């Protein structure tokens, strides 16, 4: 499986394109604004098709390019139902952001939940619910690859904001401790912003949430 890290959008949100060349299939995790312009050439070079779009949560910077991605690729969408309102009526975010962002609603094909497991790209993916930054924040864990895509729950040396509507520090702390810090220490953590880290590194040095 090949991984492409594609920062995009106004605040350089990380999108992750996962490709399985042998199958000619790809999955995109999160869709910041304008990301399709980066994804399409990679798919074309690899002669792959995008089969699914997975949203780690419903905040605008992770969904702004989602409708374009779906129109262009026909990809099916997975997301957590606790962010259904944000994903299907994104104008709500324009109200609390105080500006027009021309956000489009995204149709979700599969609502996911804590503990779900499904097959993708020739391997098993586990869903873990990690609210606190956003009600529907989830991580996608690839045990075989030792990788977790965590959205904005945890960053390299930091954690997600908890002062936005739906945020809760105590809940975020509990989520990180129970759903991320319980993964193997060697697990590579791919966050929604900034560089990757590992579970072990954050357990020992993150100044906001201890193990």
Characteristic terms for this protein:
211 residues; alpha/beta; Metallo-beta-lactamase, Chain A; 6-stranded mixed sheet
List the helices and strands and how they pair.
Blueprint: E1 2-8, E2 13-20, E3 25-29, H1 36-46, E4 49-54, H2 60-63, H3 66-73, E5 76-80, H4 84-88, H5 91-97, E6 110-112, E7 117-120, E8 123-129, E9 138-142, E10 147-151, E11 154-155, E12 158-159, H6 169-180, E13 188-191, E14 197-198, H7 199-205
Parallel strand pairs: 3-4, 4-5, 5-6, 10-13
Antiparallel strand pairs: 1-2, 2-3, 7-8, 8-9, 9-10, 11-12, 13-14
Report the helical percentage.
Answer: 25-40%
Whole-number tally of structural domains: 1
Sheet of most strands: 6 strands, mixed
Shape: globular
Q: Output the CATH topology.
A: Metallo-beta-lactamase, Chain A
Classified by CATH, the class is Alpha Beta
Report, as a whole number of angstroms, the end-to-end distance: 30 Å
H/E order of the elements?
EEEHEHHEHHEEEEEEEHEEH
Number of strands: 14
Q: Name the CATH homologous superfamily.
A: Ribonuclease Z/Hydroxyacylglutathione hydrolase-like
| Radius of gyration from the alpha-carbon trace, in angstroms | 16 Å
- Strand line-up of the largest beta sheet: 1-2-3-4-5-6
Which structural category fits the helices and strands? Answer: alpha/beta
Spans where pLDDT lies below 50 across 5 or more residues: none
